[in-house]
Amino acid sequence: KSANPQWREQFDFHYFSDRKDILDIEVWRKDNKKHEELLGTCHVDITALPAKQTNCLELPLEKHPGSLLMLIAVAPCTGVSISDLCVCPLGDPNERQQISQRYHLKNSFRDIRDIGFLQVKVLKAVDLMAADFSGKSDPFCVLELGNDMLQTHTVYKNLNPEWNKVFTFPIKDIHDVLEVTVFDEDGDKPPDFLGKVAIPLLSV
């Protein structure tokens, strides 16, 4: 019930050079659980923003009244990575030793915000639901931790896909929950849901 909402939310998008350079933003209005209405869209060209500084942008909504006020910072990506299983970031004994020293009890107060990180190896899925008329699916896997999201590549026409990818996330809140969702890629349409599992960090 507000024409001037304040969200004050922060989202981290991991931007890699092989992805598109445009950040698409949509504003929606929700009447109830079933009815939603698009109030406007705007776009930000990431390549045009100065790096390593916070940019304050007032973005007018296209073809609709109103604007969005946003703070956008383009900074080097630290603590986040996607790699193949054969080049796992924690596979090097020297690196493991450095990490053990970094999170040793005596170094606990050196950087309070540096809680640690989570490494997830996504190996494969088994006996997925068939989402296509051919009796197959085009599955990919999405990992979400807090406001961080990474995803695997799509394995086409397969109910038992193997991804063999390693994902590394920085941990910002030890009470966060890792959500792993499998979707079926459906061309230009929204992906179909194939399954989900939630893992609280405190259970690891």
Secondary structure layout:
Elements: E1 22-30, E2 36-45, E3 54-60, E4 67-73, E5 81-84, H1 93-102, E6 116-124, E7 139-145, E8 148-151, E9 162-171, E10 177-186, E11 189-200
Antiparallel strand pairs: 1-2, 3-4, 5-9, 6-9, 7-8, 7-10, 10-11
Family: Belongs to the MCTP family.
Subcellular location: Membrane
GO molecular function: calcium ion binding
Observed structural traits:
3-stranded antiparallel beta sheet; mainly beta; 204 residues; single chain; 11 strands; 4-stranded antiparallel beta sheet; 1 helix; Immunoglobulin-like
Describe what this molecule looks like in 3D.
The chain is built from 1 helix and 11 strands; from the N terminus they run E-E-E-E-E-H-E-E-E-E-E-E. It is globular. Helices cover 5% and strands 44% of the residues. It is mainly beta and 204 residues long. It folds into 2 domains: 1-77, no CATH class; 81-203, Immunoglobulin-like, CATH 2.60.40.150. The model has no long low-confidence stretch (mean pLDDT 85). Strand 3 and strand 4 form a beta hairpin. A 4-stranded antiparallel sheet has the order 8-7-10-11, with no helix packed on it. A 3-stranded antiparallel sheet has the order 5-9-6, with no helix packed on it.
Strand order of the largest sheet: 8-7-10-11
Largest beta-sheet details: 4 strands, antiparallel
Q: Helical content, roughly?
A: under 10%
As for the CATH topology of the largest domain, it is: Immunoglobulin-like
- Overall, the morphology is globular
CATH H level of the largest domain: which superfamily?
C2 domain
What is the CATH architecture assignment of the largest domain?
A: Sandwich
Judged by helices, strands and strand pairing, the structural class is: mainly beta
Order of helices and strands: EEEEEHEEEEEE
Arithmetic mean pLDDT: 85
Number of individual domains: 2
Q: Ends: how far apart?
A: 40 Å
Number of strands: 11
**CATH hierarchy, class of the largest domain:** Mainly Beta
